[in-house]
Amino acid sequence: MDNLGRLLKESWVLVEEQREKVSGYFYARMFLTEPRLRDLFPVQMAGQRDRLLESILTAMQTIEDPERLDEYLRSLGRDHRKYHVRPEDYDIMGDALLDAFRTCAGDEWTVEYDQAWRDAYRVIADRMLAGAASDDNPPFWHAEVLTHERRGPDIAVFTCQPLQQPLPYKAGQYVSLEAPRYQPRLWRTYSIANAPNDENTLEFHVRSLGAGWLSGALVRRVKPGDLLRVAAPMGSMTLDQTSKRDVLCVAGGVGLAPIKALIEELTRYNRTRWVHVFYGADRGEDLYALAELLDLADGHPWLSVIPCCGDDPEFPGEQGNVVEVMTRYGPWTSHDCFVSGSAAMVRSTLRALAEDEVPPTNIRYDTFGEV
């Protein structure tokens, strides 16, 4: 696996700066080979191309961690059931992906790189198919929107309830959503903002500013009574209940969603672990869920919440971006760390934790964009 990982990373460097071209060629080649597949995807494909690259990068980042790779690919296979993908479609997609790499890399693409990607893709496809085959749940759940609240011009907090069987998930995971009434066949991932509950309700925090068509619809157009589609849960930013380590949570903007779910889960059983939550935004008005966090802290002595703003001199709390403030309160070497927010914020936090010598196995993160 070490040699395979090396070849994959070396070859990816050849096409990394041509991501848009790779994804465009991949989809064009796939739809030309099997036109039926075009109907599985939205009219606007820009976001879907981003999803392809995110999946490739995630697989590459975990290729040398067999257990994590297996978990990710099986969950990805379960998630892809929402597209009604057939087993034979995986071969078409694999051929299209390799063709895109060869075309974009040109003469620098070698036989060794080609074989490495063939081997890697076979592993990816087999495990995704195994994950899909092992799932007895529906390809997606129909869920009715129960409440919808605007928290400022571009943020909404809403809840929905699956109408079929309950959706099984863990606090900290995310799902793909579709709003068929407003953006059919357009799926995007959003973290669930609450821990599993007896009412089988799901809470989501969505920001629309620069986030695309579906987020705009979820913030501005969706209302109670609308039906959404919710795909299988994914993600490993979950709690290890056997751990005795204290907990650090770092959240930026609507990255608070999975952090809030983790805190809710901890309130049900935690008695001994100190939990420190750093919640940051540019301005105080963007800390849209601060009151709820402070209420939780009031009821649980082990929970501390430190809000901060990076561009609001009038804010009465900590000044500076969330990573700067979190660093001032360290060290965090012996903590379980959970990070969620924009790609830039997550990158900065991971660098700070690495400098603090936090073991990578003690860090879980969720990002809105590529890390």
Rg estimate, integer Å: 21 Å
Assigned CATH superfamily of the largest domain: Globins
> What is the CATH T-level topology of the largest domain?
Globin-like
Query: In one word, what is the shape?
Result: globular
Question: Which percent range describes the beta-strand content?
Answer: 15-25%
Distance between the termini: 23 Å
Number of strands: 12
CATH architecture of the largest domain: Orthogonal Bundle
What structural class do helix, strand and pairing data support?
alpha/beta
Mean pLDDT: 89
One letter per element, helices H and strands E, the order comes to HHHHHHEEEEEHEEHEHEEHEHE
Strand order in the sheet with the most strands: 4-3-6-1-2-5
Overall helicity: 40-55%
| Largest β sheet strand count, sense and barrel closure | 6 strands, antiparallel
Note the total helix count.
11
Whole-number total of structural domains? 3
Give the assembly state of these chains: single chain
Residue stretches low in confidence (pLDDT < 50, at least 5 long) are none
- Give the CATH level 1 class of the largest domain: Mainly Alpha
